[in-house]
Amino acid sequence: MRALRIGLVVTAVVAAGCGLAPSTRPEVDSAPTGSSDDVVTKSLQDVERFWKATYPDVAGGQAFTTIQGGFHPYTERTPPPDCGGQPFEYQPNAFYCPDGDFIAWDAQQLIPQLQDNFGPLLVGVVMAHEYGHAVQARLGDTDQPTVVLEQQADCFAGAWLADVQAGRSTAFKKPDAGQVDNTVAGILMLRDQPGTPALAEGAHGNAFDRVRALQEGVEQGARKCAGYREGNLQVTEVPFSSREEAATGGDLPYDQAIELLAKDAQDYWARTFGSLPGGGEWQQLQVQGFAAGSPPDCQDPDESAEGAALYCPSGDFVAFDNSDLGPRLYQRIGDFAVGMLLGDLFARAAQDRRGASTSDRNGQLTVDCLAGSWTNDLLTRDDQENQGVRLSPGDLDEAVSALLAFGRAGDDKGLSAFDRIAAYRKGVLEGLGVCV
Ligand SMILES: [Zn+2]
């Protein structure tokens, strides 16, 4: 199957970004200056530089042929070049056209909005993704399901991003952790709507899978991406199972979500804590809510979410802001965003109770992996033993969004949410055994 147009469709671009952090605007001084079209062109030239250097390595030594049809901004009134004879219909989009071997983007809305809301580096990543489709066309690997091609393009974009992070880009200076998190936040806005079947025409993959593909590209490079095939790519996207679930978006009411999730986390740790080094019998963990800004007394709080949630080792309880943070996570992201917060607190308690650190970098990443191991359990257990909590499409995305909202870069551990998502995903995909 060869799609005529392979593009990113933006389902929603919100003015304030998607996180809970007060500002999603990055520093812009480390990026190309000027109009967003300049940013796009400089990004594409840099991506081209990357592929000239990298392509022979993934194509058995063959030299790279750059895009022949050019780079084309378009607006409602100035359409892009004809692509395979399809009538032009204005959409906020960016796409590669295999027919004319060109890349086009909406210079009127999409790109300026992405740049304003998430920073220029996201524009670079979007263009690296589109250029990735041109690379697929050159490799001759396009006869795969759309979701595989989309994730491969994300992975190729990650391979380019690694070059930027290494300081080799001609378009961007080395980004800091916060800029990378802003970029990941932007990618979440470009995800498929929850409930899109993975093999649907135009499926890009959910945010969880897309961030994984991007991270694999960053960590393992373009050769890893080039090996993506239907048979070896783990895709977590699943359709909604019932009409009711589709109507509610798969979300439980807030209070019910908290209650069920806390009970489930309790049961999970009661079953598994004994298997961890330093673990043993799990004592019932007390979960408290508190009003914003008034955490309960604790001599030695192990804080999460910038103090809006905590485990108290001396009192052996967890507590979270149940008047602002909890409801905001729930309303802005979804019920499993609250699950991510509880998962983090239970994992923090487990790590503390077994005498391991949560305060250094590795300790924090272990907490994230342990939280992911509970998600893994929710995903893999039999329905019979399931006590009313079942993950719905979009829950994994909600977890990723929640980590971006309350686990962003900026704390003293120097970890980005991007790093934390990778640790969480490891627990989700591989389970408790890989975390410690
Ligand atoms: Zn694409």
From TrEMBL:
The keyword Hydrolase applies. InterPro entries: Uncharacterised_pept_Zn_put (IPR007343). SUPFAM superfamilies: Metalloproteases ('zincins'), catalytic domain. GO terms for molecular function: aminopeptidase activity. Pfam families: Zn_peptidase. Keywords: Aminopeptidase, Hydrolase, Protease. The keyword Protease applies. PROSITE patterns: PROKAR_LIPOPROTEIN. This is Aminopeptidase. It comes from Paractinoplanes toevensis.
